[in-house]
Amino acid sequence: MDLSEATAMKVTELQAKLDRKLGPEYVSQRPGPGGGPKLTYAEGWKIINLANEVFGFNGWSSSIVNLITDYVDFTEETRRYNVGITAVVRVTLRDGVFHEDVGYGSIENAKSKGAAFDKCKKEAVTDAVKRSLRNFGNLLGNCLYDKSYTQEVVKIKVAPASISPALSLALLLNQPKG
């Protein structure tokens, strides 16, 4: 098999993985803004773990393209901060293929300006990473934009998480010698 066939096979295998939809263990819900309908989402750490599984821990990277402070409001009476930040992030695969997307982070009534900025930047960047990764396929979150899928997947009950074999091994290796 020559290199081009091997490469084509790897791309086909990768596309097959990315075409699969997220299992219910990756899907969460929270109340919508203003008590509106529930929002269905995947937590950032879960999507990052999936990206590491699919592409390899060294098969992809993310970089902040832009970070914009949309507003910083300080209310004198309450001595609290309201902050909103937009992030643009690029996710690049080892072969150079990339996707960029935007994310947003905000906070109302923060006690300190520093804590408000810290929270908003992290939220905006995580949101942008997730949105960038979803452009690679269903497995990395694109399926969450399919309303018929999300209506069904949230009905599936998920068993409580058990300790993974890797974590079990880490715990075993870190036990004091007796």
From TrEMBL:
This is Rad52/22 double-strand break repair protein. One of its GO terms (biological process) is double-strand break repair via single-strand annealing. Belongs to the RAD52 family. Keywords: DNA damage, DNA recombination, DNA repair. GO terms for cellular component: nucleus. GO terms for molecular function: single-stranded DNA binding. It comes from the Eukaryota. InterPro entries: Rad52_fam, Rad52_Rad59_Rad22, Rad52_Rad59_Rad22_sf. It comes from Jaapia argillacea MUCL 33604.
